[in-house]
Amino acid sequence: MQWQWLKQADDYLNSIKTYANTVDLLDVAEMLIIAFLVYYILAWMKTTRSWRMLKGLIVIFLFLAIVYIMEMTTIIRLAQNVLGFAVTALIVVLQPELRQALEQLGQKNFLPSIGFSDSSAKKEDAFSERTVNEITKACAEMGKVKTGALIVIERVESLKDYERTGIEVDAIVSSQLLINIFEHNTPLHDGAVIVRGNRITYATCYLPLSDNLGLSKDLGTRHRAGVGISEATDSLTLIVSEETGGISVAHEGKLERHLNAEELKSKIRQIMKMDGEEDAKGRHRRKGKGKAKGEEQAAE
Ligand SMILES: Nc1ncnc2c1ncn2[C@@H]1O[C@H](COP(=O)(O)OP(=O)(O)OP(=O)(O)O)[C@@H](O)[C@H]1O
């Protein structure tokens, strides 16, 4: 029995060796191209809502695998009949994302859009503590004087589709600039501002309105637009009410109202997952201080 098992393993190793001998440069190139394509498709999916759909599809495939193993023939037959329609439906549903992907392929700078960019430049442009402070300060000041504002902060899913409806700004986030943009009767005050990393990319952007019937009746279109974009993407939206000066946060389709500056700051940091970063910085600072203290004591 043991000999038979060993012989099988030997046969298997021999077949791998024979196959390995036939692998030429072209096969290696093909494998690299396939690996790149799979990486590109996954990286692209992660920045669109198709990522959530992929998770849904994985659940359906797991369910079908269980059904197949348990030989539930009726469900299998049903699934086989639906499969053809499902592929067509998927292409129709994902049509805007597919169009955007093809357009990106035609652009000169499509490599940075899928993550092949200079990492130091990326670090410089990342959403930082300073950006949190500037945005919080702007919201608090606009709230005090009842200036309406709508600020959408991009997370993983791209907001490029919504930027098309606005006017390019491309400037470092600062409280003064945000206050200036939303100032009444100025050309950029209408619509939403989009923030990517530490930059204000576009202003006057049009956002999809939420049709959530559960939203309070005293909320108008600014708040509906804020909730709408948070339903369509994983972004974080900050809304300052022109009527009350109240600050709200919309994320994952939920609206949190009446936040003060401190609550707003901690909400942004929590959703943008900056708590760990700050903890690490704090630990580093404490460590540095502790070390310096130790050195001082040793010197004494
Ligand atoms: N779809 C949209 N996308 C982006 N901005 C929008 C959209 N709809 C409305 N807005 C912005 O909201 C403003 C109108 O706000 P409205 O008074 O209807 O809303 P609200 O939720 O009651 O807010 P507020 O409490 O500030 O009055 C518009 O001038 C525009 O700047």
From TrEMBL:
It comes from the Bacteria. It catalyses: 2 ATP = 3',3'-c-di-AMP + 2 diphosphate. Residues 282-291 have a biased composition (Basic residues). It is an enzyme of class 2 (transferase). Keywords: ATP-binding, Cell membrane, Membrane, Nucleotide-binding, Nucleotidyltransferase, Transferase, Transmembrane, Transmembrane helix. The keyword Transferase applies. Residues 272-300 are annotated as: Disordered. Residues 272-281 have a biased composition (Basic and acidic residues). Pfam families: CdaA_N (PF19293), DAC (PF02457). The keyword Acetylation does not apply. The chain crosses the membrane at residues 20-42, 54-70. GO terms for biological process: cAMP biosynthetic process. Its EC number is 2.7.7.85. Residues 95-261 form the DAC domain. One of its GO terms (molecular function) is ATP binding. InterPro entries: C-di-AMP_synthase, CdaA, CdaA_N, DisA, DNA_integrity_DisA_N_sf, DNA_integrity_scan_DisA_N. HAMAP family: DacA (MF_01499). Belongs to the adenylate cyclase family. DacA/CdaA subfamily. Catalyzes the condensation of 2 ATP molecules into cyclic di-AMP (c-di-AMP), a second messenger used to regulate differing processes in different bacteria. Probably a homodimer. This is Diadenylate cyclase. The gene is disA.
